[in-house]
Amino acid sequence: MKKIYPLLGVIASISYIIYVIVGGVLSDGEYSHLTNAISELPYFVPQDSFVWLEKLTIIYGLSLAFFSIIAFMNFKKYKSTICRIAFLLVLFNALSGMMMTFFPMDARDSQITVIGIGHIVLAGFCAIFSILPPLFIGIGFKNVVQFRHLTIYSMISSLIIFISGCISAVGAVNEYIYFGVFERITIGTYIIWILVISMNILFSNIATANLEKYLKNKVECT
């Protein structure tokens, strides 16, 4: 399990991407990826379709949570505290995202509710826990030879998430027409980062396992 656990990160990323794309399709054109928030999907997708579509968010949250927990434990061998903190923050992001299920976004032009305020607070936590992990990983990977090539990519991802996230927040408050674009840049950058990190850890684990197997066979033959 320690070798293939990064597949959970891959599953999480793909599940979320499918959720957003398919959700938009099921809305029959009423939902716009340019102007609507991802959290507004439940208001546009038919209830009978959203019942199974919502399961993708559950798969996303649980897969990301377990991936981050195992990564946190597994990265102890690299003696990188900052990388382990990064994966802990990914866990907090996953938990905040799952809690948003119980605090849906208020419909547009409706009265603000306590649940809606809870959604905004959780969205704020998700934003923070999306910006920091790539930044910390970028710093931590400098000292991990296997993943050093992801340093700059992770830092750039953190910067993109921060900038687009700020624009998205301002756009949401001022009802900017292309608010949905910047929200997708923010979340999409984070999701793709999770996918890239997961696949690199997976490939590294497989390469290490094959090398260990080769060396073991070589020793047995001599």
TrEMBL record:
The chain crosses the membrane at residues 7-26, 58-75, 82-103, 115-138, 150-173, 185-208. Pfam families: DUF998. Keywords: Membrane, Transmembrane, Transmembrane helix. The keyword Transmembrane helix applies. The keyword Membrane applies. This is DUF998 domain-containing protein. It comes from Clostridium senegalense. The lineage of its organism: Bacteria, Bacillati, Bacillota, Clostridia, Eubacteriales.
